[in-house]
Design brief:
Largest sheet: none
Helix content: 55-70%
Order of helices and strands: HHHHHHH
Strand content: under 5%
Mean pLDDT: 84
Radius of gyration: 20 Å
Low-confidence stretches: 1-9
Number of helices: 7
Length: 199
């Protein structure tokens, strides 16, 4: 494809008309995969993931604001980290897509309410954390998979599972690191200029 750095298309094996929370949470992790991979491998994001972030934010907002799926069941410290990361991701997505902060879309309604926005941030941040941790513990295996994909040019169906099985991916455990917080810039107080008389 001209102008494309890569192409990926996911298709369900069987058509479904509704999805359980676990399936939607998986879609969310799929959507944030490139963003977290870039952070793990390069320490920053490229311009190529902007729409992934907008779509993932809208999906997380739909999980909370439309489908009432609720936040992830996390211990308090992990939930706080997820909210912090999620708020950062929401702020970046909203800067790119004004509809997220509009008045009428379901995403905007979920993000406009303090309680539901916190839940959206937690869901979005938890998905990012899961992706980041998987990428972080599997850097070498992912490099091997990328080399095999470049050599083959295209993988479909069971070939994808076979490749991933062959490189030795593993799930993170409790001893593996978590990503650092992505703090938002501080809100600055307006500058107060002292008048010449008070000096």
């Amino acid at each position: 494809r001209t102008g494309s750095l890569g192409h990926h298309r996911a298709v369900e094996k069987e058509e479904e008309f509704s999805h359980f929370r676990s399936q939607v949470a998986g879609e969310l992790r799929h959507g944030l995969g490139a963003i977290s991979a870039e952070r793990v491998f390069y320490g920053e994001n490229s311009t190529g993931v902007s729409m992934d972030l907008v779509q993932s934010t809208m999906l997380a907002a739909s999980m909370i604001g439309i489908w009432g799926m609720g936040p992830d069941p996390l211990p308090p410290d992990r939930s706080r980290l997820a909210v912090s990361i999620g708020e950062y991701l929401i702020s970046v997505a909203a800067a790119m897509e004004s509809e997220l902060l509009g008045q009428t879309s379901p995403a905007a309604k979920a993000l406009g309410n303090g309680h539901s926005r916190r839940a959206v941030a937690q869901v979005l941040g938890a998905a990012y954390i899961d992706d980041w941790r998987v990428m972080n513990v599997n850097k070498e295996a992912i490099d091997l998979a990328a080399e095999a994909l470049m050599a083959q040019g295209e993988l479909v169906g069971d070939e994808i599972g076979g490749l991933l099985d062959s490189v030795g991916l593993r799930a993170p455990d409790a001893s593996d690191p978590y990503p650092q917080e992505m703090p938002l810039p501080p809100v600055l107080e307006p500058l107060k200029l002292e008048s010449a008389e008070s000096a």
